[in-house]
Amino acid sequence: MKKVMSLLLVLVLGFALMACGGDDDNGENGGMDLDEAEGLTGSISVQVEEDWLPIYEAARDRVLEDNPDATIEFIQTPSFDHLDVLDSTDPTNEDVADLYAIPADRIFGLYQNDALAALDALELADSVGGFADYEAGLGGNFVINDEYMAFPMNIETLINFANTANAEDLGIDLGSEIEFTDLEPEEMLIPVFDAWFGVAFTNSADVEFLGHDENDELYSDLTQDFADLDPEKQAVFEALFDYWQAHHEAGTDLWDEEAAWGYMDSEFTTGGNTALRIEGPWSTGNLSSQAGDGEDLDILPLSQVTINGNPMAHWQGGWGLVLNSRIEMDEDQMLLGHRMIEEIMNTDYAVEFFEASGKIMENVDASVYTESDELSDTDKEVIAAVIESYNEAPARPLFTEWGQVWDTWKNGMLSWSAVEPANVEEAYQEIQASFEAMMLNY
Predict the structure, then answer these.
(1) Do residue 35 and residue 87 come from a single domain?
(2) Are residues 8 and 107 in the same domain?
(3) Where do the DSSP E strands lie in 157-280?
(4) How many CA atoms within 13 Å lie on the side-chain side of 329?
């Protein structure tokens, strides 16, 4: 159905290109001319979070200036709650919006469930502007079977948050490279049993939790015996084992999936034993309140901390805007959806977009944020650190099978406290067994 819609749009809106007999540069999704999207009479619904409402309302107003007879209604709900409704019903449910936001890792599952309409993303990218290489960025990760299924909304990755007062008390120099294995166990707290944070360790040595080999077959480095791992990969697990052992012997809550978060908050608070945590920009407010209401807070790129000399690295993650598959045969609705995406992502309002949503546009230069008079110094530091860390990170795996890695890694890591391995080889065997069981599914 998606390809039929794409071809219909080509026939209706780009007949001249078809008549020439040449291939459109936009492939399957080409042919839409947003400059001609005026006088539309369609109606669409748009999912929006409460904090985003001012930006979305302004975007709607700009769209309706050229399309006064069109209707754009909002479904105000958190993004994950909206996805829960979709998951429990189907795309035809009126409580599921025609245009909504998704985290990047949901793209393949929604595509497989026929929930998405293909976009003319290259036309959108050209109109929105600022993309140095659209295909090489988040937009390229949203391509499935030669179709563009989402448009980049924002980039995200993990960064370092530092409590400067605690760092000074502990003798940690925040102006230099920091080697994790040289720190005392509580000086940097990371819930490594959660793969979202654990990959900051493993990516430093290119450990592949689950990937595709040259034959497009799934494989995992973690089914290998410890002795067969590359030395750099072995060293990562040695660091993880030493970290666990120190916290286990000290009786801290870091390896408790429920209590770890409160423990980290307490120790990061000014006067505590922790100088460094890794988190996303969405945690700035919470961590700022712990660090003397921001007086003791500093922001560092993730790569400033190394593991065995190799920089920490997270993922090039992010969110996208998508259209509901139920509207893909309605020309006006599709055009209206594209115009709304175009205005939500209008780079003239990038700073306001960040202020409302905390989201950083991929296609906006860092200087737009750092030279703004509207953002705080902390916001500017966060944005600069996110952009630097994002550019140094590998792409986030988005294929559906990767979803099984979360519990596989967590179960293996949390088992250490029950099994109490005596050395890294025994600890690694628990991880290996967990991943071997996972790979039986493929």
Answers:
(1) yes
(2) yes
(3) 159-163, 178-179, 188-189, 211-212, 218-219, 276-279
(4) 3
Return the residue matching tokens 């990767």: 402
Task: Please say whether the dihedral angle defined by the alpha carbons of residues 110, 209, 299 and 132, taken in this order, is positive or negative.
Answer: negative
**pTM score:** 0.86
The whole-number pLDDT of residue 26 equals 39
Q: What is the pLDDT of residue 27?
A: 38
Two tokens, residue 79: 């993004």
* C-alpha atoms less than 13 angstroms from C-alpha of 335 in its C-beta half-sphere: 24
Residue 409, CA distances (Å) to 64, 277, 436 in order: 48, 20, 11
- Residue 295: in which H helix or E strand, if any? none
Closest CA to 135 of 26, 275, 293, 245: 26
pLDDT, tens digit, for every residue of 160-214? 999 999 999 999 999 999 999 999 999 999 999 999 999 999 999 999 999 999 9
Best CA proximity match to 304, nearest among 401, 176, 154: 176
Q: What angle do CA 81, 403, 147 make, to 5 degrees?
A: 80
Q: Each residue of 244-269: b (16+ CB within 10 Å) or e?
A: bbebbeeebbbbbeeebeebbbebbb
Q: What is the pLDDT of residue 35?
A: 66
The residues with which 156 forms a beta bridge, in sequence order, are 317
Which residue, of 391, 412, 429, is where some domain finishes? 391
Question: Could you give the number of structural domains in the chain?
Answer: 2
User: Per residue in 228-256, pLDDT tens?
Assistant: 999 999 999 999 999 999 999 999 999 99
pLDDT of residue 36: 66
Tokens of 314: 């997270």
144/278 same-domain check: no
CB contact set of 125 (below 8 Å; sequence gap of 6+):
131, 134, 139, 151, 363
The token duo for 9 is 């749009």
Taking 50 as the pLDDT cut, the residues of the chain under it are 1-29
8 Å CB contact between 31 and 17: yes
Helix%, strand%, coil% for the chain, nearest 5: 50, 15, 35
Residue pair 199/261 in contact by the 8 Å Cβ criterion: no
Alpha carbons 317 and 314: distance in angstroms, whole number: 9
User: Residue 38 is part of a domain; what is its CATH number?
Assistant: 3.40.190.10
Distance separating alpha carbons of residues 209 and 396, to the nearest angstrom: 12
Pairing mode of beta strands 151-156, 159-163: unpaired
The pLDDT value recorded for residue 3 is: 40
Domain residue limits at 279: 159-314+399-439
pLDDT of 33: 67
Looking at the fold, whether 278 and 336 belong to one and the same domain comes out as no
